[in-house]
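Final report, Chapter 2: Outcomes

The project's central promise was a pipeline that accepts a single protein chain and returns its three-dimensional structure in a standardized token representation, suitable for archiving and comparison. That pipeline is now operational. To close this chapter, we reproduce one record exactly as it appears in the project archive, with the input sequence first and the structure output second.
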Amino acid sequence: MNLKIQKLLQKFNELGTEAILLSSAYNRRYISGFTGSSAYLYISPSRQILLTDFRYITQATAQCPDFQVVDYRKAGLIETLEEYLKADEVKNCGFEGNQMTFAEYRLFVEKLPWIEWKTIGNAVEELRMIKTPEELALLRQASKIGDDAFTHMLNYIKPGMSEKQIALELEFTMRKLGAEGLSFDSIIASGVNGALPHARPSDKLIQTGELLTMDFGCIYQGYCSDMTRTVAIGEVNDKLKEIYEVVYRAHMESLAALRPGVAGKEIDAVARNIIAEAGYGDYFGHGLGHSVGLEVHEAPGLSAREERILEANMLETIEPGIYIEGLGGVRIEDLAVLTENGADSLVTSEKKLIVL
């Protein structure tokens, strides 16, 4: 039995459940190692079952040595699950209320009325907050791919290229470097489009005298990277330089403050206060950061409302920004792992303003 299963079983008393049914693709991968698109995990103190169909039996058997792999299509999901619930004498079973559809829930209640169904909330996501050494190694490699792709882009970008052209080259480069896909749709925003924190690449051509923001990430063996760099296309005006310097200072000081034992809101306040004192508080409207792992947005976050206390081996992005309509915007983002005494950035690319 792997350590992740053991930690989940230790939560059973706290959750008030005798067994758990997992349906989230990310959570079942975390607990079992299964990467297929169709499966459930049934976990009790007596047994660990991966319920899937014929298409994935061979794959699941190879990937999930701690689980008995069962083709539930032969008898049906409800009927197969009922067999194990009765064998384990389960009276209440946990499920992922934030993942299962209402229609699925109603079916379970109707077909298995003797079971009390209890939502387990974010119990597995809470386990995922603390990264293992193996996870950290994959996250470092995903971040390295991002760094190497950014280095390539510095030599590729030229005035007159479209945002879409830059986004395409960035994705192609990360895939050539070993990425299996994007962790999210790349944000490529030049000039006035930089005022949109989640701008989508457009047909706009980048021009000399503009800032160009690139927020991107890739997936490497299931784990995500996330980084942002803003560069200048030729010389930019003093206002844009001033904004960049404010964001740079907010980034560096909040990254230096990141450490275990403090609440996420305290780190957010470091960056937010710097930006507000410079007169741009109204132009920084999102949280400072979030965790990253199998998903590009995980808990805990860094925001004005985040009360959770940070711990070693958690990850956080540090991504302050300023966005001014009609002028443009700046964002600088690293992904950092908390160490015993501070934080170590997984992103190594230059953060001072680069002029292309």
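Archive annotation: The chain has two domains: 3-128, 133-345.
This record, like all others produced under the grant, will remain available to the consortium after the project formally closes.
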